[in-house]
Write a structure and sequence with these properties.
Order of helices and strands: HEEHHHHHHHHHHH
Radius of gyration: 24 Å
Number of domains: 1
CATH architecture: Orthogonal Bundle
Helix content: over 70%
Strand content: under 5%
Shape: globular
Strand order of the largest sheet: 1-2
CATH superfamily: MetI-like
Structural class: mainly alpha
């Protein structure tokens, strides 16, 4: 018996060893490197490997960093809210309305955006919203406007629209998986007890789908706040986010310790907010139960 358990454990270890090694090499080591650099000192484009907390003091004392971080959190929060609100009806339709034999086709259509590069999709939105883009050209050809609309691009709204489109599949899929796991007999029982469809959705469907909603929120919010391509391309560099600040310190200014401190500080804030969201969601579900 012990031999069989040992063999099973050894086989499991061999199975997880490749992804574990990959995670260590591609995730853990870079993060630890950034963490170490955040405690070093920059001396005229030269990194001095001496322990110091000056980088963190400079980061949190900088009003520009605080303003950009708050802006990044606000934009990421708005993108997350927009994406999840739009993704839930799509996932609900896919789970409860689409026939089972056609769900695979719909999932394929939802994942089509992944077939192209993220950068290409961002540039396509610039083509759509640009001064002589698809929207302005279409409105001019219909006689709706005489001059191209200039407010479609290089603003927060265009950034939110682009990011919401880019991360929509990441929100639809986990919500769809959670909805698929719901036992349909529970919904029928709710309606048999006299509940309306709206109340059945509010009291049964939504609480049971919350794990998917939580996953969608975290999947969208965390990478959105670290996005630097969309604010640069769609925002025209006029609405920088915290990732753009990190990029400027790392590459343009070549102050890697300060850039690392900004990155670690941002990660700490995002981690704290994510844990707070998970705690509030758990309490919400406990109250609903």
């Amino acid at each position: 018996m012990a031999t069989a358990q040992g063999a099973g454990a050894g086989q499991g270890l061999r199975l997880i060893a490749p992804p574990l090694l990959y995670a260590i090499l591609m995730l853990a080591i870079p993060l630890l490197t950034i963490l170490a650099y955040s405690f070093f000192r920059d001396d005229y484009l030269t990194v001095v490997r001496e322990f110091t907390l000056d980088n963190y003091r400079a980061v949190w004392a900088d009003p520009i960093f605080r303003a950009i971080l708050l802006r990044s959190l606000a934009v990421a929060g708005l993108v997350t809210l927009t994406t999840v609100l739009l993704a839930f009806p799509v996932a609900y339709f896919l789970s409860f309305v689409v026939p089972p034999q056609r769900k695979a086709l719909w999932l394929l259509l939802i994942t089509i955006p992944f077939w192209t590069s993220y950068l290409i999709r961002v540039f396509l939105w610039k083509v759509i919203l640009g001064y002589n883009g698809v929207v302005n050209s279409g409105l001019k050809s219909l006689g709706v406007i005489d001059q191209p609309l200039q407010f479609l691009l290089y603003n927060t709204g265009s950034i939110v629209m682009t990011l919401s489109h880019a991360y929509a599949p990441f929100a639809i899929l986990p919500i769809y998986v959670a909805l698929e796991k719901i036992d349909r007999s529970l919904l029928e029982a709710g309606r048999d007890l006299g509940e309306s469809r709206a109340m059945t959705f509010w009291r049964v469907t939504l609480p049971l789908a919350m794990p998917g909603v939580v996953a969608a929120v975290l999947i969208v919010f965390i990478p959105t706040i670290g996005d630097y391509v969309t604010p640069t391309v769609i925002g025209g560099g006029k609405i920088p986010m915290v990732a753009n600040m990190i990029q400027a310190q790392m590459l343009d200014i070549d102050n890697k310790p300060l850039g690392s401190a900004i990155a670690i500080s941002s990660m700490a804030v995002v981690t704290a907010l994510s844990l707070l969201f998970l705690l509030l969601n758990r309490r919400f579900l406990r109250v609903r139960a």
